[in-house]
Amino acid sequence: MRIALYQPEIAGNVGAILRLAACFGVGVDLIEPCGFVFSDARLKRAGMDYLDHVELIRHPDWDAFMAKRHGRLMLMTTHGSDALHSASFKPDDILLFGNEGSGVPSEVAAICDARLRIAIRPEVRSFNLSVACGIAVAEALRQTEGLPK
Predict the structure, then answer these.
(1) Distance from chain centroid for Cα 37
(2) For the segment 33-66, what is each residue's pLDDT rounded down to a tens digit?
(3) What's the CA gap between 62 and 24, in Å, rounded?
(4) Please, what sign has the CA dihedral across residues 68, 117, 12, 148?
(5) For 28, what's the count of Cα atoms within 13 Å in the CB-facing half-sphere?
(6) pLDDT, tens digit, 9 for 90 and up, residues 113-141
(7) Beta strands in 7-55 (DSSP E)
(8) pTM score over 0.90
(9) Contact between residue 146 and residue 6 where contact means Cβ atoms under 8 Å apart
(10) CA pair distance 126, 77, nearest whole angstrom
(11) CA 53 – CA 61 distance, rounded (Å)
């Protein structure tokens, strides 16, 4: 299982997601361009010493990512047609997260195998990116018996 981040904008979120990935043992695909300089100190501070424990692949753009991807693309989006808890995950799925400001373009969403939403109260807009990532990855790993022992 992998996490894919589409053109993330906030270094702290990426750092927190890299730490999450290290703790769960999942790889991360970073689809550039990013909204920050990748060596940004905030990224390093949030990721701490966990960065050495995660497989990170940086892709210069969407086409480069698509040329190397394996597994289904499971998009997490506030505009999802299906609930996260009703999805059936596979161990080689890629959980795709759009950027903090605008998500993913409609043409990217259209080619995903699923568009999933995390249940939230109607009076609020969305989870923070790293929080949403944690919820989705934990559920996907739980279903596929991939949680660390």
Answers:
(1) 19
(2) 998 887 756 666 665 678 889 999 999 999 999 9
(3) 25
(4) negative
(5) 31
(6) 999 999 999 999 899 999 999 999 999 99
(7) 27-31
(8) yes
(9) no
(10) 9
(11) 24
